[in-house]
Amino acid sequence: MLKRRIAAAVIVKDGIAVQSIGFQRYLPLGRPEIAVEFLSHWGADEIVLLDISAARQRRVVSPELVKRVAARCLVPLAVGGGIGSVDDIDRLLQAGADKVCINRALFHAPDFVTAAAQKFGNQCVVASIDVAGGEVYEYLSASTGGLDPLTFARRAESLGVGEILLNAVERDGRRAGFDVDLNAVVSAGLTIPVIALGGAGTPGHFREVFQRTNVRAACAANFFHYSEHSIIRLKADLLNDDLAVRLETSATYREAPRDGEGRLLKKSDEELERLLYIRIEKEII
Amino acid sequence: MGAEVLYRMSSRLKVVVVDYGVGNTHSVANAVAFLGYAPSVTADPAALNRADVLVLPGVGAFAPAMQTLRTSGLVDLLAELVVVKRKPILGICLGMQLMAEDSEENGHHVGLGWIPGHVRRLRVPSEYPVPQVGWNDVQLLQRDPLFNRTGDTPNFYFDHSYHFVCEPAFQAAVCDYAGPVTAAVQRDNVFGVQFHPEKSQASGLKLLRGFFVSVGG
d(Cα A15, Cα A49) in Å, to the nearest integer? Predict the structure, then answer.
């Protein structure tokens, strides 16, 4: 059966991976390629690399950056930031991207979106749609123009995009949960898959958005960056709730004791003593 | 996967990733290099001739890809190498679909015709999004050589709106997406996978390793 995906977003500002809060405050995390390498090893099903300074500086996410990141990424890589031409996409795919996220061109250049989907296939083109106050949000002008998210997403679908990355701006960095209503309405009204973004703070938030909506993937950034093996522990929780996700890392934490917030508890001294004498063979591919 | 996984290094197998301007050749070459081979990414006839094994990647639409292969002279060259000289080849995603007789993607288009079968749109109930995007389990029908190093029901990353409809004799694996969907095909020296082994972490690396080892790597 097709599994729900756990995608990890890496937000890049001025060449540095950052934590974003409400699209307003940014805390530095480090080099993007290092963040991606860890997320890929920890079993993220997909990586979304978004350069949020690109459009503002009237440039495109750097193919050089994408090349460095792609070399360490063994899962699908979607990249976004200022993409506005077929040549841009060509360069980014050459650099190792698998998909591109289109945001501003959805408003201003619908013909380009269709041309991109025709040339590279619809699986290659993701519409990244920001929503605030129930309306489509334009982040450069930081305003909404009365556009209904579902109508806008349907238009993107008819332009030929293969997926929608649906970002609830007001929930960005708040750790209060995904916007279930928004994701439910949009995912029910489309035939292409929707990826929920914005608001993840606990494993329960992923469970909620998967159980109550038809989104095929849930994406988070900040949630994954601050603890080791965060993706593996999240997936273990979802599997224990009978949600089908992919968990193929050699460590799974499915039996590991946790506290109420999903953090790992120390194992008992007897268990640690036992583990001392277990030899784990290295797997050779 | 992670620090606990070792990758066997250094093989002299000459892997050539066929570069015809369509697709994520860089991703494929990355994964092949990860396993310790030194792949070349090229469409140069001499290099293709010298290759021990070919990889035909591809993303995008069927017709432009065939058109590009045709105008660059690769249709004839590949036919000679694969059909006459029987060089092993692995098609990935669209690269696999191109091996069919024809496709109905945006019209009717003739393919390379190496494996009897037709590429058809995924026709699934409305609650199943199209494209199928994500990780799906595959059911193995022929273990050798592609799946002899993977688990019994490995999962791989799929991303496609069309699929390869063919006789079970040519299917190596299927996945379930509101019914069986061809996940891998094989016929003599011709192999293809609908999913992306280069983007399927450890399972994908194991598949690539199994394939390369089977042809002498």
Answer: 11
